[in-house]
Amino acid sequence: MRSTLYLVAAAAALMASTAQAQEADCKNPQTQTDMTFCEQSRYEAADAALNEQWQKTRAALAATDKGLDENDRGAEKALLTAQRAWISYRDAHCQAYGFQARGGTMEPMLVAGCLADLTDERTKQLKELSDAMGN
Questions:
Q1: Is 17 in contact with 89 (CB distance < 8 Å)?
Q2: Which H/E stretch holds residue 15?
Q3: How many CA within 13 A on the CB side of residue 41?
Q4: pLDDT reported for residue 11
Q5: Were both Cys, which of 2, 35, 60, 87 would link to 133 (CB 3.0–4.6 Å)?
Q6: Model confidence over 53-74: pLDDT tens digits?
Q7: CB-CB contact of 76 with 65 (8 Å)
Q8: Could you give phi then psi for residue 27, rounded to 5 degrees?
């Protein structure tokens, strides 16, 4: 898991220096550097959306807990447990996904794209849960 995060961080640092020299056209990236930059940017946007939805969903489950008897509470705690497990799964899965191009220039792109895809899916799941709770 840590190596995935280091890999993504290294790719982000590389991409940041590249981005200063020129902006990548993410609608039609032409180089591996641009493709990796675009996937990393997509992951960063997905992560920001996830964090925003997380706050809403957590608040919805906390509100649910407040309306229950003390013995019946636990929605917010269950959500936190699930989110921590999901993060571990996401990071491990995407690290494994990157092995398709282990050690190559495509590996960071594959990892970042995987992270973006799974993060988008999780954001939708959290929104569905929040909507189901009436928020």
A1: no
A2: helix 2-21
A3: 16
A4: 63
A5: 60
A6: 999 999 999 999 998 999 999 9
A7: yes
A8: -80, -25
Contacts with 78 (C-beta within 8 Å, 6 or more apart), sequence order: 61
The pLDDT tens digits for 75-111 are 999 999 999 999 999 999 999 999 999 999 999 999 9
Residue carrying structure tokens 């929040």: 130
Give residue limits of the domains in the chain.
Answer: 1-13+78-135
CA 51 to chain centre: 9
Retrieve residue 99's tokens. 């092995």
At 63, list the tokens. Answer: 């509100």
Closest CA to 64 of 4, 124, 125, 133: 133
Distance CA 61, CA 75 (A): 5
pLDDT at residue 23 in the model: 83
